[in-house]
Specification:
heterodimer, A: 102 residues, 56% helix, globular, B: 41% helix, 15% strand
């Protein structure tokens, strides 16, 4: 599985892209604990969509695998993998590993 | 020199799709296309992918390649489509699956992957293909017309979901054009169909590009979720 730090940095790059399109008062913090979804998130639903798409594209560029982060499994999990940057990184790591195994 | 605008056209090996490749290359676009088979010839400035439009992993690979090569996408023309003229009592399930996969699943997959690229630049034009068979409620075209009705719904809803990303989604609904798609339909049946149009003639490729050009032009950024049927249907 890819290093968690690599995946966190990859998501931070996606946040950089998103922040570039947002005002100074709407910037998303680049920390593992940053809430992405639910109470405490600064992202609206479209902002989260943009972050997920950007993260998928960066995973493709860096790891050479095409993953779908918002898959049926993610949608049906009791604890959403989109809660925080860390949970998203963990879920992405699992998908990359699954894709590599084929 | 800045790269010309990039367009994806599906179903480019023959018929309308093949015409669209030449037409938009001539208009200065970089054109990338796909069909189930390879092209019969090399075309300057055109890049081809041989794939089934309903194969998710192949479609994603195609768009991944476009992102790496061009870094942008400005327009998608979802032309690929299959029809099957048959009474419903004689329609095999395999025909149904083929029609739904190409016309609905394929259109959906290309819209989704194109929109992912277009949202990076907050701009884009998607043009889907409907058909006059839907509003004319043509007997013998139940599945084809139904699949294209779904494309109209998809167009209307994606227009709303993608508006915030600066992407417009519209559809053109051609009348019969003399292509392989209608080759097996008896002439007499075609004439009766054309008789139901306000303007009673076969469509030409240029009738279709006229509507697509309207959707593509920069000043059409306030036009989205619309289906324009040709021939006055």
């Amino acid at each position: 599985m890819p290093e968690s730090g690599d995946l966190l940095n990859l998501i931070f790059e996606a946040i950089d892209d998103l922040n570039g399109l947002r005002g100074p008062d709407e910037q998303i913090d680049k920390t593992a604990e940053t809430t992405l979804f639910g109470d405490g998130s600064r992202l609206d639903s479209l902002g989260l969509v943009g972050l997920i798409v950007s993260t998928e594209q960066k995973i493709d560029e860096k790891f050479g695998v095409a993953v779908t982060l918002a898959d049926e499994k993610a949608m049906s999990m009791k604890n959403s993998p989109f809660r925080t940057v860390q949970t998203l990184a963990d879920y992405a790591g699992t998908l990359i590993e699954d894709a590599r195994r084929g | 020199m800045a790269e010309s605008k990039v367009m994806v056209i599906t179903g480019t090996r023959k018929g309308i799709g093949r015409y669209l490749v030449d037409y938009y290359l001539k208009a200065g676009w970089s054109v990338i296309g796909c069909s189930r088979g390879e092209m019969d010839e090399d075309i300057d400035g055109y890049e081809h992918f041989a794939l089934d439009v309903s194969n998710e992993s192949k479609v994603r690979e195609m768009f991944s390649s476009i992102r790496k090569e061009h870094g942008r996408l400005d327009a998608l023309i979802n032309n690929a489509g299959v029809a099957s003229m048959n009474h419903i009592l004689l329609t095999p399930l395999s025909s149904v699956e083929k029609i739904l996969n190409t016309n609905i699943v394929g259109t959906f997959l290309f819209c989704r992957e194109a929109a992912k690229l277009m949202q990076m630049t907050k701009a884009g034009r998607i043009v889907n293909f409907a058909t006059v068979a839907t509003p004319l409620k043509l007997e013998g075209e139940a599945l084809y017309a139904s699949s294209k009705a779904a494309v109209v719904s998809l167009t209307e809803i994606l227009a709303r979901e993608l508006a915030e990303f600066g992407i417009t989604v519209n559809a053109v609904g051609p009348t019969p054009v003399r292509t392989d798609l209608i080759r097996s339909v008896p002439e007499e049946k075609m004439n009766r169909l054309i008789d139901r149009q306000a303007v009673k003639r076969f469509g030409e490729f240029a009738d279709i590009t006229n509507v697509i050009d309207f959707f593509l032009q920069p000043s059409s950024d306030f036009v989205t979720g619309q289906t324009i049927y040709l021939g006055g249907v």
